[in-house]
Amino acid sequence: MKGLSLFFCFSLFIVAFIREADSASQAQNNGIYIVYMGAAASSNGGTRHDQAQLISSLIRRNKNAVVHSYNNGFSGFAARLSEAEAKSMAQRPGVISVFPDPVLQLHTTHSWDFLKYQTDEKINSSPSSGSDSSLIGADTIIGILDTGIWPESESFNDKDMGPIPARWNGTCMDGQDFGSSKCNKKIVGARFYEESDDSGIKIAGSARDENGHGTHVASTAAGSPVAGASYYGLAAGTATGGSPGSRIAMYRVCTTFGCRGSAIMKAFDDAIADGVDVLSLSLGSSPGLEPDFPSNPIAIGAFHAVEKGIVVVCSAGNSGPGPKTVVNTAPWILTVAATTIDRDFETDIVLGGNKLIKGGGINFGNMTKSSVYPLIHGNSTKSNNNVSEADARSCVPGSLDENKVKGKIVLCENLDDGEYFPSDKLDEVKSRGGVGFILIDDDERTVA
Predict the structure, then answer these.
(1) 80/333 Cα distance (integer angstroms)
(2) CA-closest candidate to residue 296, choices 343, 339, 329, 248
(3) Which parts of 3-116 are beta strand (E)?
(4) Which residues form the Inhibitor I9 domain (predicted)?
(5) How would DSSP label each residue in 173-227?
């Protein structure tokens, strides 16, 4: 009888172990879904009864199932669900939509691919002249959803700014290399949203910007005046944001690899409670892939923010011109289109016989005007017979011979249909010992 009892207990243990392992396996295979339930219960951040019931049922199954809960501006949550659970959840009373957590992209240009080559050089600028609380936008609080912020930038000094508006309810989260003391009267708040999944979109525990995009966007919107700013002596003047008297609240929802929709919705939810006046987002879906409004994190968050009197400004993307290339098109969003500018930085190319050609470009090299450097076409520098003429003329990676390039200025063409960035071709010339790089682009009719 004792042996039977031990066998029965052992069997129960095995069954429990198998169930636990199966549950863990299911949890590991679950994806993150957003469950949107419409309006919030109240303005005090309370949880709706039906929302609380759904969350409670998930936690009983898996204590780590719920990723975010939305209670301030709207109701809902993000949770790890199986596809079957998501379909079942969509049928529950009070649920408006259930959709997979999308990864949205930052909106920027390829300028950063070029600028990376100068990051190890010092940009000289005069000390800041400070900011003035009487400047445009004084006491407006701009919430920015992006990659974070570099608080040490002179664009975020708070000299001469008045007290933080009493209506501000936000916080400055302590994080890695970004303590709450990094906030000031200019950067009044900073939040970050950590998520653990297999997408690679894992935000480090800090509001610090690891990319530069968020800092760029924040300074463009509300940077304090910085006198004597220039880019290696070019375009010298005072750098200032469009609303230099405004305060900044940063919500870090992105990494270089993208922005989780569930984190974006949580940032909207927090920003509504924090008391921002304006929300700025330079991110969005890929052109032609923007979901319908009930499954669109930005459209949902913006709708409820506007409902609370917050102006939401979003970028239209960097694609186009062409049909269906604009994103963030919800009618309650102020969508800002991209455009071109009517100026270039010109560099003189002086050929033999003193023939002068002007091209758009910036020279940061050590070449002097008095020296003469050999000029060679990429097609004459093929690394081997297996390299095509088109690849060599385009100076694509791996196409050039170091012995033929070293010490010369290399003339390249843009014949690869956009497969490689100009920065890739510049890398190829630099890595082979070239001292200069000239790119001819027939599509743009430019020499750079």
Answers:
(1) 29
(2) 329
(3) 31-39, 66-70, 74-81, 97-100, 103-106
(4) 33-107
(5) --BTTB-GGG--SSEEEEEE----SSSS----SSSB-SSSHHHHHHHHHHPPPEE
142 with 276: CB under 8 angstroms?
yes
Helix (H, G, I), strand (E, B) or coil at 56: helix
Euclidean distance between CA atoms 309 and 20, whole angstroms? 48
Walk me through the domains of the chain, giving residue ranges and CATH numbers.
19-101 (3.30.70.80), 104-336 (3.40.50.200), 346-447 (3.50.30.30)
**3-class DSSP state of 274:** helix
pLDDT, block means (10 residues), the chain with 448 residues: 45 41 48 96 82 94 93 96 96 97 81 39 39 62 98 95 96 95 97 70 83 94 92 82 95 93 98 98 92 97 98 91 90 87 74 81 65 91 92 94 95 84 91 92 58
DSSP state at residue 400 = B
| Residue 167 phi, psi dihedral angles, 5° rounding | -75, -10
Dihedral sign for Cα 398, 399, 401, 404, please. negative
Give the CB-side neighbour count of residue 402, counting CA atoms within 13 A.
5
Q: What is the pTM of this model?
A: 0.77
Angle at the Cα of 426 from the Cα atoms of 422 and 429, rounded to 5 degrees:
140
